[in-house]
Amino acid sequence: MVGSFYVDDLSKHFGGFKRGYSESDFILFGVPFDSTSSFRPGSRFGPAAIREASANIETWSWRTGMDFEEVKLHDLGDLAVVHGDAAETVRRVKETTEDIILSKKIPVMLGGEHIITLGALRGFKDAAVVSFDAHFDMRDEYLSNKLSHACVMRRALEELGVKNVVIVGARASYRDEIEFLKKSGVNYISSQQIMRVGAKEAGAWLKKILADSKKVYISVDMDVLDPAFAPGVGNPEPEGITTSTLLDLIEEVIDDRIAGFDVVEVSPAYDSGATAVTASKIIYEICCMAAKSIGL
Ligand code: MN
Ligand code: MN
After folding, report:
1. Ligand 1 centre from 177 Cα, in Å?
2. Hey, which of 37, 127, 231, 284 would disulfide with 215, CB 3.0 to 4.6 Å?
3. What's phi and psi for 148, nearest 5 deg?
4. pLDDT tens digits, 10-26
């Protein structure tokens, strides 16, 4: 019979399953935007690659003793972005984030390049951000553009204050930025320091910084990982941390204040497939950790 072997294309839904909006705790959406990418473009194809990978990996989380399929997540699909217009894209991300928060759910965003995180942070207004990134993204402007992915944490710093921005795993910078970091007192820990002291001690440092924050937003720029683990990114940078170290750190930092998170900068054209799978795994694990911490 025609159609007997037809399956709905669940690879278009994150995790390979469909769940309704109202019954869900997490609301995922993709932002296929890469207009300010400074080196290797293509992260606009990130959400589709991550979804496809997510539908093809196993769902048990050994870290939390949960199955990702127990996590109540709804996939909204992709935001309609305006290529070349970062301001409008950031505005749409902000509105989407606000809608999700209004319905008392947790936003999960798939990038796309890192500037989109600014929209999510504007949606929250008062969340502290932990940016796992090889880069500080603290340039005042990049090629005369203040809304470049290289400036996202500078804008966050201006809007949220120095207490509410932490950079974890950084190792790529230049003199002016380092001087700015010193002058402004931004909290950061390099990948080399993390590897020296281990995730437990680095996590304790991070927890202390976040002690007074009411809400915590996590942003994972996939280039925080060593290119050996995540080759398919826009700006690969050697001496990164491992996937396990990243998840150990996130595990240390997640508690019931987790407000939302994103995973950005996957550029599938440069990927072996490993980066998209790893991004999916990170999302699975963060959702399980958050669900467990909040008691969902
Ligand atoms: Mn970044
Ligand atoms: Mn980066």
Report:
1. 14
2. 127
3. -85, 155
4. 668 899 888 999 999 99
Ligand nearest to the CA of 191: 2
Torsion sign (Cα): 198, 176, 218, 268 = negative
Tally of domains within the chain: 1
Using the mean position of ligand 1's atoms as its centre, give its distance from the Cα of residue 17 in Å: 30
- Is 69 a residue whose pLDDT tops 80? yes
In b/e form, how buried is each residue of 270-287, taking b as 16+ CB within 10 angstroms?
A: bbeebbbbbbbbbbbbbb
- Measuring CA to CA, which residue among 134, 128, 182 is closest to residue 157? 128
d(CA 95, CA 100): 9
Domain holding 215, by residue range, is 2-294
Closest ligand (CA of 222): 2
Alpha carbons 261 and 162: distance in angstroms, whole number: 19
CATH number for 175: 3.40.800.10
- Tell me the CA–centroid distance for residue 142 and ligand 2, in Å: 14
